[in-house]
Fold this sequence. Notes:
Blueprint: E1 11-13, E2 33-39, H1 46-66, H2 68-71, E3 74-80, H3 85-97, E4 103-106, H4 110-123, E5 127-129, E6 143-145, H5 150-164, E7 169-175, H6 180-194, E8 198-205, H7 213-221, E9 226-228, H8 233-246, E10 251-254, H9 263-266, E11 275-278, H10 287-300, H11 306-325, H12 330-338, E12 343-345, E13 348-351, E14 357-358, E15 360-366, E16 369-376
Parallel strand pairs: 2-3, 2-4, 4-5, 5-6, 7-8, 7-9, 9-10, 10-11
Antiparallel strand pairs: 1-3, 11-15, 12-13, 13-14, 15-16
Amino acid sequence: MRARFALGAAIALALLPVAVPAARASAEEPARLAIxxxxxxxxxxxxxxxxxxxxxxxxxxxxxxxxxxxxxxITIVVGDDQxxxxxxxxxxxxxxxKDHVRLLLGxxxxxxxxxxxxxxxxxxxxxxxxxxxxxxxxxxKRIFRTSLDEGREGELLATYALKVLGVKQAATLRxxxxxxxxxxxxHFAAAFKAGGGQIVAEVTYALGTDDFAPALKQxxxxxxxxxxxxxxxxxxxxxxxxxxxxxxxxxxLGGDGWDTPALASATQGGAVGSAFxxHFAADDTNPAxxxxxxxxxxxxxxxPGAVAALSFDAYNVAIAAFQRAHTxxxxxxxxxxxxxxxxxxxxxxxxxxxxxxKEGIVKSVTASGNQFKTRVAPRAGTALIVPPPGNxxxxxxxxxASLSLSxxxxxxxxxxxxxxxxxxxxxxxxxxxxxxxx
Length: 438
C-alpha cells in the first residue's frame, strides 16, 4: 500500500461509532476498551501517520455525535513508531505494558506493521493491520489485516478482466526475481485461469532496466492485448510511455501503486485506457463514501486519502468487535474479529471470517486523471456475506492523490532507535488531534 502524515507524542482520544448493532455491557459496570494505535508521528513516514490520524479523528467525531455513551467507553492511545521497526516495537510494548491497551492497531508501513505484529503475538493480544500490503503472520489467528495485499489485488484484477472487460486472454509482465510484487501476477494468473481465461505469455524484464522494448515485443508476438503488471509508478512511467509508441493497441492493468493523478501525464499518455485496482475513490458515488468525503472536507479542507479511509475503517472494525464481544478481554475480542462478516466500510465491504475477503476499487486512467470505474468483489469461494439492512458503517472514501501508498520497503536510511512514547493524555471528548502534512 502507500501514504504519509504527522502527529506529535502519544495521544489519547475518545473513539468512534460502528454501525454494527450489538448488546451493551451491563449498565452497572459498562465494559471499557483501550486501543493502542502505533503510527509514525515522526520520521520519514510522518505524513502517513498524520493522514491516518485524520481518518481516526473524523471517525471519533462521528461516534461522539452518534453515540456519546459508547464513545465514553473507548480510549485510544497513540504511540509514535518513529518510522522504524525498532520504534514500532518499542511503542507497541509501551502501549501494552504501561498503558494497558487490549488491542493494537497499526502501523502504516510494512516494516513497522510487522514489528507491531510481533509484539501482539508475544503478548497474545489481537491486532488490526489497516494499511500494510506486505505479508503478515496471518497464521496467527490474532492478526487481522483489513486492507488488500498484492495477491488479493491480483485476484480482483482477474475478476475485473473476466467479468467486467469480458476478456478471455491476458499476459503478465514483471521484473526478474521474487518479491511481494510477484504475488500480484501469480495470483492474477491462477484466478484468471480458474475463471476460464488463458495466459498467453508470462514475460519478465531485468531489474532496473529502462528499456522495455524487448519485453513488449515478446508480449506482442504472443498476441497479448491486455497485460497485467505489478510495475511501480516509477517503472510504469517508462513502460507505458514505450508501449504507447511501439504497441498502442496494448492495454495494462496495475496495482494500487498507480493511484496518483500524475499517471497519465507522467507516462506521456501511455496509461490512458488502462486501469488499476486500489483501495478507495473520492468520486465513488456511494452515498456513504460521499458522506465521509464531506465530513473530511469540512474538517480539513480537502478530500481524504486512502490512508485516512483505511484507518477510519480499521477503527470501526475494532469498535464492531468490542460491541460484539461486550468485553475488552483478548479472547472474546479476537473471536469477535475472527467471526466478522459483511462489514461495510468506506473502503468496501469486507469479511474477516476465514481470512480477509474484500472488495477492491477499480479506477480507469483518462487524459484528465484517474476516475472511479467500479467495485469488484472477491471471486467465488471468498464471497462476502452481505449483512442485513442497517448493519453497516459508511462506505468507501476518496484518496488524496498526493499521498502514494507505496510502503513496501523501509527507507534507505533508518532513523535512530525509537524511545518509548510519552505518557498518553487523558481522553478528551471530541478533542481534535493536531496533525500537519508536510
